[in-house]
Amino acid sequence: MVLTTIIEVLVFGLIFGSVVALAGVGLSLIYSIADFPNFAHGDYMMFGGYMAFYINVQLGMHMAVAFAVGVVSLVALSLVIDRLAFKPLRDAGPVPLLIASIGVALFVRNLIKFFWGTQTRNYAGDWQRAQEILPGVEMTGQQITLVVVAFTLMFAVHLLLSRTRLGKSMRAMSDNRRLARASGIYAERTLMWTWIIGAALAAAAGILLGMNSSLAPYRGFMILLAIFAAVILGGIGSPYGAMVGGLIIGIAYEATPYIPGLDAGYKFATTFVIMIGILLIKPQGIFGGAVE
Amino acid sequence: MQTEQTESEASEGVTEPILAVEEVTKTFGELLAVDNCSFEIEDGSITGLIGPNGAGKSTMFNVISGFYQPDSGTVRFNDEDITGLPPNEIAHKGLVRTFQITRDLTEMTVMENMMLTPKNQTGESMFRAVFDRGTIDRENDAIAERADELLELFQLDHLRDEFSGNLSGGQRKLLEMARMLMLEPDVMLLDEPMAGVNPTLENDIVERIEALNREEDVTFMIVEHDMGLVMDLCDRIVVMNEGTDLAAGPPSTIQNDERVLEAYLGGGS
Amino acid sequence: MIGAPLQIANVEGYLLTVLIWVGIYGLMALGLNIQWGQTGLFNIGVIGFVAVGGYTSATLTIPPSSSYFGGFGFPFPVGLVGGMLAAGFVAFLIAIPVLRLREDYLAIATIGFQEIIRLVYLNEEWYAGGPRGLRVEAPYRDLWESALPGVNFNWMWIIMLVLLLVIFYVVLERLNNSPFGRVLKSIREDEDVALAAGKYVYGYKMRSFVFGCMIMGAAGSIQAHYIGYINPDFFWPLITFYVWIALLLGGSGNNKGAILGAGILMLFLEGTNLLKADLALVSSTQLDAMRFALVGLLLVGLMQYRPEGVLGERRSLFEGGGDSGGSADAD
Question: What is the predicted ipTM?
Answer without folding.
Answer: 0.87
